[in-house]
Structures are given as structure tokens and as C-alpha cells.
Amino acid sequence: IDLTPLLAKIACPTLVLGAIHDPQRPPEMAKEIAQQIPGARYIEIESGHFAAVQAPELFAQHVVPFLRGQSFS
Fold first, then answer.
1. Contacts of residue 17, Cβ cutoff 8 Å, sequence gap at least 6
2. pTM for the full predicted model
3. Residues 9-35: tens digit of each pLDDT
């Protein structure tokens, strides 16, 4: 299912992480998704596809402030 046409309808704060070592969803793809979501924040991190497992501290460094509504580090 291609949900790409619905990306522009997302109206909540959105963080899109691009993982540099992700062959399944490379950063170029993640960035393209972020560009289609109004106001989305895009961050590229040094990780693979499972960033929360492969680089949990780095993942948390960006996701936790976003979830708290704080500025990014």
C-alpha cells in the first residue's frame, strides 16, 4: 500500500529519522518522506534500520526531546 499521498495530510508534530547505515530505508528515502509532511523535522543519525536497538543513546538523544516538545540537541 502506497500511503505517500496521505503524508501531506499529517497535521501533528513529526520527527523523521534517517539512518546512515539503513539499506532498507536509506536516508534519501527518509528525507523525501519528511519533505512531504508539513513542518516535519528531519534528522540523520549514525545507525542502521533498527536505530532504537542499534544506537539507543543516540536515538533517545533526538527522540526524547522531540516527545517532550523541547528543542533538538
1. 30, 43, 44, 45, 51, 59, 62, 63
2. 0.86
3. 999 999 999 999 999 999 999 999 999
